[in-house]
Amino acid sequence: MRQLDKAAVAAALPWPRLVAALRAMFRDGCTAPLRHRHALPEGGTLLLMPALNATHSGVKIVHVAPGNAARGLPAVHAEYLLSDAVTGAPLALLDGGELTDRRTAAASVLAASFLARPDSRRLLVLGAGKVAAALAEAHHDHWTLDEVAIWSRRPEQAAALCDRLRHHGVPARPAATPDPRGFDIISAATLATTPLIHGRDLQPGQHLDLVGAFTRAMREADAEAVQRVLVVADTRAGVLAEGGDVVQAIAEGAVDESHVAAELADLCRGAHPGRTRPEEITLFKSVGWAGEDLAAAVMAVQT
Question: Could you tell me which PANTHER family the record lists for this protein (predicted)?
Answer without folding.
Answer: KETIMINE REDUCTASE MU-CRYSTALLIN
